[in-house]
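Annex B. Sample input.
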Amino acid sequence: MQTLNAQKTPENPWRVPAPVLSSGKYGSVIVDRGLLKKAVAGSNGHYLFADNAVGVQSLAIVGTAVQVIEFLLNHQTRGVESTIKSLPHLYMGISPYTPKARFSGVFPANELLSSVADFLGKLIPAPDWSTLIGAPDQLATLQKAFDGLTSAEKAKGTLLYVKLSYMQEEKMILIGRGKATFKDILHAFQKSYKK
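Annex B, continued. Sample output.
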């Protein structure tokens, strides 16, 4: 999988291709996990999960904690939608972005969200970050704090991999049924943080 650079603002979200097994030399089996591809929104502005080749692929938002939260804040009215009638539930998982490990599928959301608030508190002199991240009515204050950051400040910290899918994996949390806006997804971050 390609390495994404936090120094420039990531072009989120991405489509995550399904691994493909193929036969190699001497009877070996090769797992090709493919490359992340820039996702394209549907006509309603939402990124669709559908019964087609692209629509069955999960979505990923990659960036530092600040970049991920800023993306969600800046695109609050857009989101994800499942048009697969038998799979209407939408899930989110958060893990460190480790391209060499090719994403294990374990998403320890609560621990990472706690470290996000700690990181933000060290980076930016602002009100209590745990209050801002944990309070849905504080989104305007959070946006204002992010607007004052430079690109270099936004790029500091560990890269995160936020996976959005209609299929639940271990430690993924439910974020909606049928449709979820990025504002809903940001609130799911906040609820996970409060636990």
